[in-house]
Amino acid sequence: MVVAALTFVLVVITGYYAFHTQRMAAEMVRNREQSASPHLVASIAFIGHGEAVVRITNVGQGAALDGRLEVVFIRPEGSDLPPHAITWTPNVVTPFERSDFYVPTGYRRVMADFAEQFPRVSLVGTVHDVLGKEHRVDDQLDVAGYWAQISKERTQLGYDPNELALRRVAAQLEVASRSLHDLVEVGRGTDFFVRMRREFGGTPGGHSSSPAPAEDPRSPSEDVADLPDQGSPRPTRRAPLDALRTRVTSAARQLGRRRP
User: Which end of the chain, C or N, has fewer beta carbons within 10 A?
Assistant: First the structure.
């Protein structure tokens, strides 16, 4: 009886260790697969000037190999136009590597327009891990809902969602205003050079090798009569540039004064 009882206890202990050893082995297999598994997700990323792109990131621990993917920009319900699909076939996407995809050509990239034109974006396809196992990718991105939530939060904080874009536009207009100012100054310098060339027959400060002009038979009074009135502005081709520079500067100041 004693031997039988000890044998039974030994069998129970052996079975217990065998059960836990099997569980540990299965856990090790799962950890190895998880460490080699890629996980691609789609998100919205802002790139400045109020513009946004679809960013695909591998948030898994393993690299994605031999990808066969499509980034699909889905139009609003009721639209007669088909979705716009971008085929993406990366050989390798390492962990935490990211790739940006812009909205189709001809559409505005500003976030508000992006959400209106393409309220949803999907990432579908397949990739393989380093062990050769195939992984299905199917990630849906609610662009319209994301933008609505951001707008709501910023409005509650007293922040205008369009303020950043307007400030960017104001900065660009300031740059354009300075460029036009420089262009006008160059035009004025060119006009001075042309006048000096006509008066002296050469460059300012230089000497002309051309013969002296024939004496004009008209009287000095007739020459004075032909000159434009010094009190009135002399019409030149730079006048439209001055007007355009003034309009750009005014628009930049108005946008710069906007507050949330």
Answer: N
Interhelix angle for 239-256 vs 163-200, to 10°? 160
The domain in which residue 63 lies consists of 37-156
* 7 falls within a domain: no
The separation between CA 242 and the C-alpha centre of its own chain, rounded to angstroms, equals: 32
pLDDT in tens, 59-113: 998 999 999 999 999 999 988 999 999 999 999 999 999 999 999 888 888 888 9
Does the residue 84 lie in any domain?
yes
Single pTM value for the model: 0.53
Q: What is the DSSP letter of 158?
A: T
Q: What are the angstrom distances between the C-alpha of 82 and each of 73, 97, 101, 102?
A: 9, 30, 18, 17
Q: Is 244 inside any structural domain?
A: yes
Residue 44 sits at the vertex; the CA angle it makes with 257 and 72, to the nearest 5 degrees, is: 130
Report the alpha-carbon distance of residue 196 to residue 201 in Å, rounded. 8
